[in-house]
Amino acid sequence: MIFPATLHAAPKSDLWPIWNQSNDANAATFDHQKWQQLLDTYIVVNGQHTLFNYKAVTPTDKALLDQYIIDLTALDPRNYNKAEQFAYWVNLYNALTVQLILDEYPVKSITKLGGFLSFGPWDDDITKIAGQTLTLNDIEHRILRPIWNDERIHYAVNCASLGCPNLAQTAFTGKNSNALLNDAAIQFTNSDKGAKIDENTLTLSSIYEWYGVDFGDNEQAILRAIDTYRDGQKLEGWTGKIKYDYDWKLNQP
């Protein structure tokens, strides 16, 4: 999902064309019940955060997660309609991220995972679908972002970090995705980790710096996009200092 803080550019939205296919006449749905069972069992709400209790995951539930991923990746999402596909990719991304943490737990941060000298596991081959090997970055930046062109995607994919938008407590489905995206956007933009005002300084999530192009073509446009979901003080027109921050600590209780 993210890129090293030392780099000057985040991954761009770059369509992988083979995934931009669908069967919109197909009314079949994916089964996300295993994922929902895990969310119900291990998500802990603590203030502005939803945390995942990795330490408490039993071997049986780890096997359930592994089976859920096996079940999803055995299917070709292109045979389904676009709404089902969106839920498929978001849930798979989040489930794979949880699996990565559990496979290496205990770990203080997802940034400690990945290959030699890498900043996290986002460019590591992580799964195979329809004969194609994919990374987490493939799912977010070559499938989700370019196909759906929806900035709320950044509020839905979770990187197992405190600074990240919350892991949704409800599994995405073809029917509830829009509502969940709106809920995620509202939660994040109204949280301190999304936007925090302290006297003359506005601290924004680094997501708005890394992926600003998805939110607007200039700083005020980005603030306007954030304001769309904010209940409190509006940010557009801000003339004070703006800085960016992100907390990479693991999202655990």
List keywords for this structure.
9 helices, DUF547, alpha+beta, two-stranded antiparallel sheet, 253 residues, globular, DUF547 domain-containing protein
Structural commentary:
The structure is a single chain. The protein contains 9 helices and 7 strands; from the N terminus they run αββααββαααββαααβ. The protein has 253 residues and is an alpha+beta fold. Helices cover 38% and strands 11% of the residues. It has a domain at 17-191. It has helices spanning 33-42, 59-73, 82-104, 136-148, 153-156, 177-189, 207-210, 212-215, 219-227; strands at residues 43-46, 49-52, 127-129, 132-134, 195-198, 201-205, 241-245. Residues 1-8 have low confidence and may be disordered. The protein has a 3-stranded mixed β-sheet with strand order 5-6-7. It has a two-stranded antiparallel ribbon with strand order 1-2. The radius of gyration is 18 Å and the shape is globular. InterPro entries: DUF547. Residues 78-188 form the DUF547 domain. It comes from Enterovibrio qingdaonensis. This is DUF547 domain-containing protein.
Provide a quick synopsis of the model.
By secondary structure, the protein is an alpha+beta fold. It has a domain at 17-191.
The number of distinct helices, counting runs of at least 4 residues, comes to 9
**Which regions contain 5 or more consecutive residues with pLDDT less than 50?**
1-8
The largest sheet, given as strand count, sense and whether it forms a barrel, is: 3 strands, mixed
Which overall shape is indicated by the principal axes computed on the Cα atoms?
A: globular
Average residue pLDDT: 95
How much helix, percentage-wise, in residues? 25-40%
- Specify the structural class: alpha+beta
Rg from alpha-carbon coordinates: 18 Å
Distance between the termini: 22 Å
The overall strand count is 7
Strand residues, percent: 5-15%
In the sheet with the most strands, the strands line up as 5-6-7
Order of helices and strands: HEEHHEEHHHEEHHHE
